[in-house]
């Protein structure tokens, strides 16, 4: 191809590109607005029975008082879940008789609390528990076996809480000697 023909093709392509750009950039909002002028617009208001302010509902909401659930927002320990006990009712003159409370939880039979200790630099007490050959060292607030949370480590007993139900229990310091497993 000759240089003159290449120049003409280039000018033609530039002209086509400018024409396409002009068609794309042209303001079409005026065309749309002018097409809507002749048509009747239908206005539908919101379906509200009474648009006036309802002062009695406002006053009632202002008079309500917040009553919290008693949970401490800054505590890591989760609150005990509220369990509604069903009452067995007798149809006598005495009225309904409440169900007796469930017994306090206990650690599994093979878990024994055999001592406690502290580190000299002033850290919290640690409790030592054994489960056969396994030894657990836990502090207050730690979980044991994924089911129990240690609440307090005392000199003669260990207070714990069952995580699922929130019931609290206690176990006494075991006097049985713990033997090391044979190796």
Structure, explained:
It contains three helices and seven strands; from the N terminus they run αααβββββββ. With 183 residues, the protein is of the alpha+beta class. The chain has a domain at 111-172.
Please outline what is shown here.
The protein is α+β, with helices and mostly antiparallel strands and 183 residues long.
List the helices and strands and how they pair.
Elements: H1 3-25, H2 29-37, H3 55-63, E1 111-117, E2 126-131, E3 134-139, E4 143-144, E5 148-153, E6 157-162, E7 168-172
Antiparallel strand pairs: 1-2, 2-3, 4-5, 5-6, 6-7
Helix percent band = 10-25%
Q: Please give the number of β-strands.
A: 7
Number of DSSP helices?
Answer: 3
Q: Rg from C-alpha positions? A: 40 Å
What is the rounded distance between the termini? 95 Å
| Uncertain segments | 86-91
Largest sheet: 4 strands, antiparallel
Based on Cα principal axes, name the global outline. Answer: elongated
Strand content: 15-25%
Mean pLDDT, to the nearest integer, reads: 78
- Strands ordered across the widest β-sheet: 4-5-6-7
Topology order in helix (H) and strand (E) letters? HHHEEEEEEE
Structural class: alpha+beta
Which terms summarize this structure?
alpha+beta, 7 strands
């Amino acid at each position: 191809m000759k240089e003159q023909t290449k120049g003409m093709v280039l000018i033609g392509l530039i002209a086509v590109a400018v024409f396409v750009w002009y068609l794309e950039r042209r303001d079409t909002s005026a065309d749309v607005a002018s097409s809507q002028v002749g048509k009747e617009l239908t206005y539908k208001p919101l379906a509200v029975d009474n648009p006036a302010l309802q002062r009695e509902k406002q006053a009632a909401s202002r008079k309500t008082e917040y009553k919290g659930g008693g949970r401490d927002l800054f505590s890591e320990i989760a609150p005990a879940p509220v369990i509604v006990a069903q009452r067995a009712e007798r149809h006598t003159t005495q009225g309904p008789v409440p169900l007796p409370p469930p017994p306090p939880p206990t650690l599994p039979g093979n878990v024994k609390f055999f001592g406690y200790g502290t580190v000299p630099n002033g850290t919290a007490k640690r409790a030592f528990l054994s489960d056969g050959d396994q030894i657990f060292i836990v502090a207050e607030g730690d979980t044991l076996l994924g089911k129990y949370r240690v609440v307090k480590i005392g000199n003669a007993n260990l207070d714990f809480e069952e995580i699922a139900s929130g019931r609290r229990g206690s176990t006494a310091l075991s006097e049985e000697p713990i033997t090391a497993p044979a190796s």
